[in-house]
Amino acid sequence: MGNVKAVVLAAGKGTRLHSEEFDLPKVLREVNGQPMLHYVLEALSFLSPKDTILVVGYQGEKVKARFEECEIVWQVPQKGTGHAVQCAREKLQAFDGTVLVCCGDMPLLKKETYEALLQKHEAEGADCTFLTGTSNLDLPFGRILRDGSGGFLRVVEDRDCTPEQKEIKELNAGVYAFDCKKLLECLELLTDDNAQGEYYLTDVPEHMRKKGYKLSLCKRELGAEIVGVNTPEQLQMVETILKREQ
């Protein structure tokens, strides 16, 4: 896989999952007998734990104790996905390679999917490569807009889609490969000038595009792999799928 580090976003509380009732952070909620973060790190097992940075926040000490072999950085307070990656800057400052950014609440994403993303990123000589995909599930994910030649144009979040854009089947999985130096450069350009007052990682590729950096898309049929666990219903769905795959 070459020179790669992973940054895993694992700071969330899991409010919609009612995780406070279980006295656990979101990524430690169990599916099929294991914390959902366990499955994410298992899929990233092609990397050394020391090259895997967990961004923790809510009840982060519990995540740190459970996965102590990984590098840990803190996101307090939590001000969005872009801010989460900013919190890992110190661990990435001296690194010259590829940074894989992924989510600790996507336990169905497979090792070969992460590897395909990294291979596409390397083969294209890209500065940023999105994992995108299709799914037969009705999911509130951002849609990928492409230009006339099929290149990346931008991501439109589900809530901002026009009826026509809602029909786009190519979804943004929220998983990326970045050139580390260019990622750090563009993280500095993020602002929290939005309704949520947060720093969005999805703004980084837009800054890269404006700078003329190379963007690439790794499109796959993802099906249920793309599901992020945010609700009790999604937790149950993931549990059912993991049991079936045993």
Task: Write up what this structure looks like.
- The model has no long low-confidence stretch (mean pLDDT 94).
- The protein is built from nine helices and eleven strands.
- The protein is globular.
- It has 246 residues and is an alpha/beta fold.
- The protein has a seven-stranded mixed sheet with strand order 5-4-1-6-10-7-11. Strands 2-3 form a two-stranded antiparallel ribbon.
- The protein starts with a strand and ends with a helix.
Features:
single chain; alpha/beta; 30% helix; 246 residues
What's the arrangement of secondary structure elements?
Layout: E1 4-10, E2 30-31, E3 34-35, H1 36-43, E4 52-56, H2 60-66, E5 71-74, H3 81-86, H4 89-92, E6 98-103, H5 111-124, E7 128-134, E8 143-146, E9 152-156, H6 163-166, E10 171-179, H7 180-187, H8 203-210, E11 215-221, H9 232-245
Parallel strand pairs: 1-4, 1-6, 4-5, 7-11
Antiparallel strand pairs: 2-3, 6-10, 7-10, 8-9
Helix pairs in contact: 7-8
Class derived from helix and strand content: alpha/beta
Alpha carbon gyration radius: 17 Å
State the share of residues found in helices, binned by percent. Answer: 25-40%
Oligomer: single chain
> Helix count, per DSSP?
9
Describe the structure concisely for a colleague:
With 246 residues, this protein is of the alpha/beta class.
